[in-house]
Amino acid sequence: MSVVLRPMSSADVSAVSRLEVALFGEEAWSPDMLASELAGEPGKYYLVAADDGVIAGYAGLLAPGGGQADVLTVGVAHDRWGEGIGTALVRSLLAEAARRGCTEVYLEVRVDNDRAQRLYQRHGFTRVGLRRGYYQPSGTDALVMRREIRPAGAAESPPPGRGGRRRRRGGAA
After folding, report:
1. Comparing C-alpha atoms, which of 105, 147, 146 is closest to residue 129?
2. pLDDT tens, position by position, 87-104
3. Structure pTM?
4. Does the domain made of 4-148 have the CATH classification 1.10.10.10?
5. What is the spatial distance between Cα 26 and Cα 159, in angstroms, rounded to a whole number?
6. Cα torsion at 150, 47, 61, 43 (round to 10°)?
7. DSSP 165
């Protein structure tokens, strides 16, 4: 993977917004929403996966420190699926949550997004609930998933399996 993960900046908002629309259609965050997320509360952490200046993916986390963190979004360009970008983004979010002393991470993911659900399950997330009609305007239900983590410096066992504030969708990975 030739992609570099780096913090999202205001200069990335336009490219991320275009990717948002391609991935999430009418449920996409607007450029203003994305910009406000970057300028918002200090507990938020956004990053992009860039490949020669082209945004191939992005992700966001709300982790004010200690306790609970929430994955706000994960998105990977359709033509980059299967390259490990989603995995790299999720691992980076989990590492950041651990650095901030969080002990558990939650996310919401569309019930009809099997690909993203499998990604999260590979990283140790388990299903804990359902939010009916969560995604608007479609009214699609969200599956709530949770993963325990150990703060940075604590021994972390590998996840089981192989080897969307306006809380969010958990992504198109």
Report:
1. 146
2. 999 999 999 999 999 999
3. 0.85
4. no
5. 34
6. 90
7. -
